[in-house]
Amino acid sequence: MADKPEQSPKNWTESEVSTWLRSIGVKEHYIEKLYEEEVDGQILLTLNEDFLKSKICMKLGPAHLIIQRRDELLHSQQKCQEKKKPNSSKKTELEQKNNPTISEGRPAQIPVTDQDIVEERQTAQEQCTLTSKDDCKPRPFDQEGIDFIYVKQRVLQPESGAFNLTSPCREFKSFAIAAELDRTRLQAKFAKEVLKFATGCMNIRSNGTIHFGVMDSKEDAGYVHGEIKGIPVKERDIYVDALDYIERSFSSNKEHVRQCVRPPRFIEVMDLQSTEKRFVIEVDIVPSISIVKNKVYAVRLPNFKESVNKVEFEKEVILRRVGSKTEPVSDKDLSDFHERVKDRDAQREEAEKNQFLSGPGICQDLGRKLTMLMTSGKKFMEKEKWFILVTNKFTPDDLCNIEWLLNMKMFCVFDFDPDSKISGLCSRYLDHHAANMHFLQSYRISGGKSIEELASHLHLFEQTSWIFCNGRTDFKGNETPCDEMTWIKTKMTFLQETVSLICKQILPKGTFQVIFLLTSPVEKPLMHTFYEFFTDMEGHEDIICICESEGNFQKWQSFAEGSCGKEAVNTSSVVGMKMSHVNATLQLVQPTKACARKHLPIFVKGTCLLETQVEEQMYSLEILMVNHCDETNIDFINEEKANIEGQFYRGGRVTWLNFWLAEHKHVGEVIERDAYRETSRLLKDALKYNADQTPVNIINIYHHPGSGGSTVARQVLWNNRKDLRCAVVKPSYPAAVVAQHAFDLREYEEKDPLRCLPVLLLIEDSDKEHLDNLRHELEVAINIKRIPYETVSFILLSCRRSHDPERRCRESPLQNISVTHKLSPQEKKKFAGKREDLKEHYKHNFILTFVWMSEGFSEEYVQKFVEHLLQDIDRQSVVTKLIHFVALLNTYVQNSFISQSHCEALLSLTLQLDGFRQHKFEMSLSKQAKLVFLHLRDDKTQIKSIRIIHPLVAKEILQQLLGTQQTQSSLAMELLCENVLFEHRFGREEYQTFLRHLLIRRSRISKGDKDDSLFSPLIEHVRNIEKNPDKAIELLKEAFERFHKDPFFAQQLARIHYTDEKFEEAKHWAETAAKQLPNNSYILHTKGQVYRKWFQAKCKAIDNDNKPKTAQNTADAVATALKALECFQECERAAAADMENVNSSGYFAEVEVGCSLLKLISSLQVFVNRGNGHSECMKYLVTDYIPEEVEDAWGPFHGDLKNLHTIMQDALEWISEDLSYFQTDNGQDEDETPESLEEKISHPLKWLAKKSSEYGKYFSEAYSTALVKPGQSIPDNLSVFQKRMIIYQLGGGNVTSILNKLTDQKDAVRLLEYIVSLYPRNPINANFGQRDIVNYIMAHISLNCLSPRNPKVAPLKDLQALCRQFPSDKRRCLPNALFLLTLLFWPEDQDTDQEKEAKYEIVQSAVEHLEKGYWTKMKDIPQRKRRIYTHFFLGKGNGLDKFVHKKKFEKLTKVFSVSVKRMMWLSGEAWKMPDIAKMLKCVSGWTEDKVVYLEGPRKKKFNILPLYVPSVPHSNENITFYLGFTFRGPVACNILVNK
Fold first, then answer.
1. Cα 998 to chain centroid, rounded
2. pLDDT mean over 438-466
3. Local structure of residue 1428 (DSSP, 8 states)
4. Is-contact 1504 1492, C-beta < 8 A?
């Protein structure tokens, strides 16, 4: 309906307007509001943005959209009408005025200039008919050196007559047509208008100004009288020279006229929509009494006569001003006019006297005004507030007074001075602070970058961003300054994007203030910047202008007043105050002293000065100074100390000021808990010299959430800041960056890198992987810098939450500390005393968290408090809804919060409609919310947010508020569907991350949670406590839609459905996820899991049927199992291609499904009932034979089923090889992601041994089980395949299973003897495959480890001979085969040089290919994440006895916990155990440039990898070490320098 151009919008009804609004995408609640206000078509045409914003409470975006689309609709309709009348050459005057179409061909009868003015009028009408015009002030009258500007479409006060003779009367001329005339015609026209006006003014003795380029007649449709349009000026001298007509137009007193008529002034007209230069030309008339006394002026006005094509002069005439017009004096009035000359002279003389006698204006209190503006009416400037500075060229004097700027939290500077980096503000700023140089285009978001990524890339929150807005002269790139018009054409768009991005996406309203510091003449680009900020900030409240020069300010003022009104400009501007005065005034209200000196401790027990710009370059650290907080203004301390202390005891995080205040006795002491003393003791021990010391020590503080762990950790830093260099690691920086900054901090101002104080780093709420990464990066750097290994360089104090801190502490008492809610008897005393002190100063409600802590957070106490709190709460209010939402997030998502900006958006829905919009956020909260909400600020962005004062309170509030009426699932659904919160632009990514975690993130014991869960704790609650699995599904479906069909929610839905055995739905969701991420191995694994579980369910159903199993009734289950195998193989391929993750789950699942499928097949009636059923089954699976009972029913599956034994063997082999490379005990702490696997294999080595045996059992004959009985002989008629399968069943089918016998030693010797006896007696001639040779040799080595000198073990020489059957092209060798070559051919002392050389060559070739295979296996994963596993060490024996398996050591260290054991190996302590040293052979070698070498034959160098790189000495030394054998080649352990 509404889209049809035929129907005029003017005739629309309210419903038709609503339909049109829907069609352009306006939100429903705005449409309803406009419908209620009875907006029909006619009213729609009169609406403007101001009306929509103020009366309908519409946001700026939709208001702008409606007006723009309405205007486009009108435009398109008028175009349509134009097309309908193509031949109409005669148009009425009205049509010519109102038709907004600009036709390309000009109608012949309209002259060019007229056509231009018609077009101009038409455009103006389109833009202006529906919007009101802003008033503006005229240029100050007859003042020299004023830099002034007009803005197009603003309106001057109407034309006026003489008022008091010194206030100028005014006359406006549009001059649009005349401006296009040739020189002669133009000069005649201009001179005629000026001289006519001037004569009128001079004759009545009144000052006057005539304005050209200002609309003078209401007949100009679409324009307002006095509206500024401007005219193009090609040559200024045309207008200046036009006044030469004075000599020809006046017969006498020509000099008088010259003196009274000022030269033309050209005032530029600024047009935000156009780059064309236009001007208003103004001529001032000043008839001073000394010139005009007793005179009457007659003029002959010039006029260009077209008939004779020249200028002629009209009859001489005396003119005067009558009202707003200039008229000739009539003959009958002439004598009277002459007679009254003296009266007019007297009036003029009086007026001039009065003008000079007027006293000075009232002096404003500029200091107070400046202070109030900068502090937003508070006593001090906000510490956390960001400032944005917009400025131009500074004078040298001003640059000497910028301490106030240096002491502000500067987000960015828009600098219009191209020389700023060389000689301006930027160069001076860089002497004190770090800043990043940017251009406007740096803020362009490209390539799908998020706002967070852009902010991180530009380091917006770490260092000031210095934006050169008009080029930079010292820059070698293409960034040259340009003139105003070029700037508007080339840089204007970048400016708009940058300002919009900062104001609308990066910094929420209220968190920043914009200061326009005008230190030199103002140009257009600066005004455009004001306009952009004013528009994007939706007002002027947070914009301040500071300007010393009145002249600079006037041009600015004339522009700014049009945007925000005269009063607003005056209120928010400080004009006439010197920079030195601004500097002194503002330093008094800044919370810290300007340019304060900061000190760090040094090695020789003094201190050094830390420059601020150096500190800012270490942006990933919050560095603690020796004199930290000393720079704080004492007035600020006295004003704020109660708030600072109160915030802490209410549950806020401890700040350095809390400790400073306590230390300086401004407030009571901060309690030192027992954990503080324990941590200090561990720290002291770590700092003692110890030869076994590692350079990076870790101390862990595990704490219950909200129990004060962070306070303990920060207290340790605070009290050690004078002896160690201390810093807090800020979150979300890569480990490499933190390590670099930590090293910079350690070595700052120290001469010798070996003689530096240790650095104590606090890392809070970081996962173990990040801690390991940081430790690794620091150790690598220590190694590169050649710092002695036993020097303690860094102590990492890790503070992490845990559900059971005490258990963590018991696991490793020398490294872990626990902080719990439970208080010791001594702590109870301290807390009781402190509680009494606090009660004297604070009300009970203001120290809630402290009170709960002193009660040990007893459940009953918290329960009673919440009960009391909620007694009279208004359950329907929007604030209660907010409490609900925050409580839900705080209960289930660690460290969650809702930004204040989000809260304001939610509350404003009700507040706007109720007319309370002006209330501040705090005012809008209920008393309950004020009590339980804790206001936080992000350390980095300073964005405010709220959470509930304690997680336990959040949990209790959630429980009691919901009661029995509402469920957590319905609340979660409400939160998910709350558009205002979900779509709010500030902090959107953070908020949506919390929502994701609420629905997807599972509990992990390793993360400090109570248990490991299948789904997120909320989903588990809905399923198990609410007993409503359907609701859980509904929630996840809503999230899937809400998060734009996010595949990870589809993955969760697949998991939840197969858990509930709804397999069709599970299949649908798994396929939906896989369609979106076809190469994600984790999602493909989930898809496989769907079919695997489905297959299990089908098998269960068949078993429950109690019917004989036939091919017909099992076909469906077999098809499902094969589909599962296909999915897992897809998963394996995707995992192999993914270079950044390791996912072996496909192989494990493939084996599991394979075993289940074999179990089903072997239980079929056709295979069970016959005497040789098992043999028949194997015959079907491994040969071409197909029993007729299964031929048809299993028709499609025969090929896949006959391939089953091969794919299972390949999968088992892959798992075995993978486990051979890497340690398997380091996966317990990895980060939880949406992609985490459904089922983790917790003991892969045992699993592999069990599954290999199971696989072998299915494929070996029925009597194979009897073989394990003692004394049983091996039948001669077994095929090679059958023997191989029996070997599998006995645990000899792959390297890992064989080596596992060394751990699980029950019956191992006898089983290995059987395995060995199953191989041919003469293996050399047996035509073994590679795998068979590897397994055969590994069985012998393992048997020898368990039973040395066992007669069944082949001698080393035989095994070496067998190795020669490996392919000569080492690229075709399996890694297992290459590993055995390094092991078996390692030279022995008794070998001849020739033998040694031959062996070294074999070993070297094998190592070369092992290294290549290792890197393929490693992908792009850091080595510390997949630590290579050392299987054997070189012992003191000969032959096979020289190989000592690692499991032998583990018997000696098994009394220690895993983490202590790891520390022992890492620090080298374990190698010193006498029993271990007794077994191993000490190998001699040397190091060159940190590379370890062994001497080979003929003095050849043999490179050995160090197992632990930092243990390699930095200098070139002779060393000894133990030799280990890994799947990467031989490694050196326990490297010691020869004394």
1. 19
2. 87
3. B
4. yes
